[in-house]
Amino acid sequence: MRTNKRTVWFLTLMSLVAVISIYYIKEKAPMPFDGISIFSSDMTETAEVPKKGSSDKQTPVFATSYLFEEMRMEVRDERSKKSEQLNAKMTSPDYTAEEKNEAFEEMSELNKRDSAEALLELQIKALGYPEAFVRTEDGDVKVTVLSTEGHSKQLADEITQYVLASWDDAKKVQVDFTGNQ
């Protein structure tokens, strides 16, 4: 049987569309959506009408969450470039075994730091904060937390003590709050 590439690609695409369609049809709950829900029968949930005389400036939480995603993407890009450099160094025949070993150790340290940061973010979220971003540099830990309740010295101290207790390499912890105050 003889088929051309276009037919094979078309059949592959159609089968992929069929699988994804069945997945979304069979799913019990709709996918979470950070913006305004378009296909909602109850419009009171989707649109909040501001009251007259209300001068409080409110920023949506999902817009701040995108800020956290942008920060994560910047860190991922920076670290992936570093990882590519280290990987190139390890596979290149121009370097000695000691230099390749140092590159391997640095790459494993980078992976260890990534996983520790992700774990700390999850643990801080478990404390009751909607979103958290953790970044480490040479023992300095910078924590940015999305807080809808505002911020206080007590909350910052709580996070600082938690980070110092959880992370052995943490020497200095800086906590920043962002979100609705």
UniProtKB/TrEMBL annotation:
Pfam families given in the database record: SpoIIIAH
Full protein name: SpoIIIAH-like family protein
Record keyword Membrane present: yes
TM annotation in the entry: 7-25
Positions of the UniProt region annotated as Disordered: 77-105
Polar residues: bias regions: 85-94
Native organism: Sporosarcina jeotgali
Keywords: Membrane, Transmembrane, Transmembrane helix
